[in-house]
Every structure is written in C-alpha cells, then in structure tokens.
Amino acid sequence: MPTPHDHATDRASLLSLQQGEAAALNRLIERWQRPLHHFAFRYVQNNTDAQDLVAETFVRLYQQRLRLRADTKLSAWLFTTLTNLCHNLHRWKRRHPTVAFEQPAGGPGADPDRNLPAFDPSSDQPAPDAALEHDETLAAVRAAIDRLPHDLKVTLLLHHYDHLSYREIGEITGCSERGIETRLYRARHQLKGMLAGLMADPVQR
Description:
By secondary structure, the protein is mainly alpha-helical. It has helices spanning 7-18, 22-44, 47-63, 74-95, 128-146, 150-161, 166-173, 177-200.
C-alpha cells in the first residue's frame, strides 16, 4: 500500500489533474488501484464487482476534481468514496440475491488473502488436510466479516488488513479515534461469537 503519510505526491498529482494534465489521473490510478481493489474485494468478495467499484471511484475523482481543495487528503477521500460504493452495492445485492460470491483466479486482481500459508509444524509445505482446514477457516472468517454491520466491517478491514491507524480510519469514516477503538472492540466481539463454534469444535477427519 502507498505510504499513508506521503501526502505530497498525492497533492502534486491532484493539482496537476485540476490543471488539466490527463496523465496525472493515470499516476493516481497506478498509485492507489491495488490497495483500493484489495479493500473492495474483501468487502464485496467478488473480483468483478471490486474492479467496477474501484473504476467508479476514479471516475468520481475525475468528475469532482475541481471541487477538491488543494489540501484534500486524497487517500481518505478515495477510501471514503469506495466504502460508500461498497456499502451501496452490498445492500443492493442483499435485496437482490443472484449467484454466490466468486473466488477470483490469479492475476493483479486476485484475492489478496488467497495464498496465505496453512500452518503444518511437520513440514515446510502445508499438508492437504491442513490446507483444506485453512481454506475452510478463511471462508468462515470471510462469511463472518460479511455479516458485520457496515461501520464495524469497514473499521475492521481498514485496521486489520490495510493496517491503517485509528486516526486514518477516523478520517475515512468520520469517527473519533475513541470511536474507532470501540468499533474494533465490537467487531472482534461479534466475530468471536460467530466463529466460536468453528474454533471450539474443528472439523474431524
């Protein structure tokens, strides 16, 4: 992920974009597309939707470029816009269920958590059973996160996966740092409850 505190690069690109330099948008896309896609995929759990949402985020950036102040913190603006788009799509899909979430196949838009290793103390490589258990656990965690309320879900994803500070998450969500701490506590508490059965009674083979 781009360095959160390196705002000068973003400000320079935004200024160039406002002055009519088309290449400035390409620089911002190159800088932010991957971290935005990683967040969007974890939220909507669909690669095609994630790509579309990130593209729409950059479309909105271009459309609103002249309205943004010179001191706009672009990282916060991009993630705020994207989280709102994710939320709107997620609510729409819950009202209009069609097909199950897809799992993307490799490439630059691949699932960022797909290749996390399964732990097997007896081997450098995960055993088939360990790999399967890891996949099932990962799927259960994703399903539990998906059931969290929007504010808790966004806070958890930004903190746990994107490693943003309370202050940075607060800038995106419009919440105080104390509020972010409370949301993280609530999110973890709810996840613990949803996953209790899985952790206490692993599948026997």
